[in-house]
Amino acid sequence: MKSFKYLLPFALAIFCLAPTFAQKKKKYIVNAYVGGFRGLVKTEEIDVEKLTHINYAFVNVQDSLAVLTNLATDSTNFRKLNEMKAAKNPDLKILISIGGWAWSENFSDAVLTETSRRKFAKSSVDIVRQFNLDGVDIDWEYPAMRGEEGNIFRPEDKQNFTLMFKAIREELDLLQKEKSRSFQLTTAVGGSKSFVENTEMGLAQPFLDYVFIMTYDYGGKNGTVGHHTNLYDYGDTPDGSSADRSVKNFMAAGVPANKIVLGAAFYGKGWEAATANNNGLGEQRVKAVQGGGYTKLKDTLINQNGYKKFYDKKAKAPYLFNDSTKVLITYEDEKSIRDKCKYIKKNKLAGIFFWEYFSDPKEYLITEISKNLD
Questions:
Q1: What would the DSSP string read from start to end of 238-306?
Q2: Is the pLDDT of residue 33 over 80?
Q3: Residue 32 belongs to what H/E stretch?
Q4: DSSP-assigned letter for residue 224
Q5: Which of 82, 84, 290, 366 has the most CB atoms less than 10 A away?
Q6: 205 with 256: CB under 8 angstroms?
Q7: Domains of the chain: which residue ranges?
Q8: How far apart (Å, rounded) are the C-alpha atoms in residues 126 and 132?
Q9: How far apart are CA 242 and CA 48, in angstroms?
């Protein structure tokens, strides 16, 4: 009893301080797109403890249904991803991503009527239910405007894009009651102003947990060579493309900052420029040249094999230029990732996502994200 008397004040002090000790830093979203379209996913190579979300790419859209085009492979991948989650990161969210560049041609038909939307929404959520996943991501490239050649698009897509999310959210709410846990609905959106103009993001966002802005694949204006994943505008153009401009456009359209997830490219894009002026930046494109994933770029091209590295301080973007071949490669590196992480914190965004996990197998960039967004 005597020892207890002396321990009591200490115990009370610990109890009072407990909320402070338990308080955690803000949890930022770190979302990786993982390409199941290639076949079996090497889940053992995923550093899952550095992630909060995985978007499994892709699920197809056929006859107003969300369809797994290779059921044997996809079901195996879902099983392995769930096993990885259970063993290493139980808080991980695994979502199916529907569409993508190659499989967006049938979205417009799938969401054209209330009946077709219900059918599409139910089939999407049925996949989540069947494979014990955590939600749905929509990657429609693009509503009401052309994406890949042959895609169906119509003016009504603008309203139907919103109504599609409403229908999916209602199906997810039914699943939530059934499973007694929450499920997420997200979307990957084009970073262009035209995407904002052809959608109703302010009306759609209440149904969404997060909006992943694809702040990459920009390029220069009018067929010129430019950065593809730059944080800020550059050059003298008043209407340039950049992550900052995209974020501001979506916020102006009604998407709150705490739902916006900033995109990073784990791959480079290459162009042959018409001249070597200004290291190719702003020059006319001659032809596309393979860029490759960041691990390949860092290990074989950066300041090697005729390529010299430059960093555009205004755009906050690195690039390589080969003076003899006039090839410029625009990409993301550790410094640009740090700059994007600072931007996310400063502007109180939800976090970061990237395409695609296995483009950087040595984890140069995911490690940098982990250091800067904890």
A1: TT---HHHHHHHHHHTT--GGGEEEEEESEEEEEEESS-GGGGTTSBEEEEEEEEEHHHHHHHTTT-TT
A2: yes
A3: strand 29-35
A4: B
A5: 366
A6: yes
A7: 26-265+332-372
A8: 10
A9: 29
